[in-house]
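Agenda item 2: MRU complex prediction
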Amino acid sequence: MRSIEWRDGDIVIIDQTLLPARLEFRTLTDTESVAEAIRSLRVRGAPALGIIGGLGVAQAARRPKAANANALLERAEQAAETLAGTRPTAVNLTWGIDRVLAKGRAIPMTAGALRIAQSMVDEALAIQSEDEEACLAMSKHAQEFFQPRGVVLTHCNTGFLCTGGIGTALGAIRHAHESGLDIVVIATETRPLLQGARLTAWELSQLGIPHALVVDGAAPGLIAREEVSLVIVGADRIAANGDVANKVGTYPLALAAATAGVPFVVVAPTSTVDLSVTDGSAIPVEERAPGEVTAILGSQQIAPPGTQVINPAFDITPASLITAIVTEHGIARAPFGPTLRQMAGGGKTSRSHAPKPRAKAKPMKLKQRQTATRVTGPSKKRAPVSKRSKAAKRTAAPRRAASRKRVAKPVPGRRAR
Ligand code: MRU
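Presented output:
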């Protein structure tokens, strides 16, 4: 089963908003339905956004049958514009869109509309199968960070649902489990849209991997209490210096891991690396609707009417907190820049459809944010954390051994020894 399939001009997706209650497929027949599916997170996760972005452009090129090559490319460009505007943070989306568009433009006009459209479909399908291979390669490279009987904490959902293959971080977890390492997974619920509780817990149970769910706020404390031997996550965009944008809540996990001397590993294909962005401060962070926070999954209201909300969908983890970035080409460690350039330097097209960063916040929120920055300015905080991290790493091994014993009891589904 694949989470996205091309069926003779239709795009069929697993509707991720319905899981785990219902496993249902949805057929996307035009650009508007593809854009709606991306905005509402029916299809989500960086690699999947690259795949659907490419397929969406190819679909617009292919149907209805264009009178000539010019008309076809014009329609594909309009679709590219619409789709690129749906979500700003995961760079895979514009990467997939631009790659398919560039393929269409590279075919001589004299080849005719039919041939150009087919080459764009082929290119979009190539993105999907390349991602499938990348998932396998990443999962193998990442194995050196897993310990036998380790306790592995992950955030958001990074499995088959949001890639062309077995997943990124969750693919690596699956590989470790299938290799007989006897690991236990702690999945964060991932507020506000619960990708961890709804999707990761579902994938883990389908795979028969022992796991426990925790609320996001509990995870840093578990790491600090030495109950975790590895934190492993995916990414939505990796800057040239190794700063990583990922689901909001990733940064506190990285801080806790650095403080406790626990490895913090990011697994992502090179289609997620954006060398045009120098560091994380230039990555646009998507701000989503307040209703996602004030109500649980759009149904039960949990905050008083009129409550102001700040709802960034992602946060930025500085490279200084990251132990390793694993791509399909291998493992990058600090300083990340040279290795990332080597790994991702060749394959990028220009980001002609990259959306501009959105205005960050309304005036009242901005005032509050400025106050917060004055109190906990990032430049003052970062240096001590990385120093602590080095000191902590020196003593990490014996502490982690103790943690496995402690975690063995509370995690449901853990076999008695
Ligand atoms: O808002 P989402 O659910 O699309 O965010 C997804 C994430 O943050 C994932 O961790 C990331 O895209 C990696 S997916 C393999």
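Discussion summary: Residues 113-141 form the longest helix (29 residues).
Owner for follow-up: CH.
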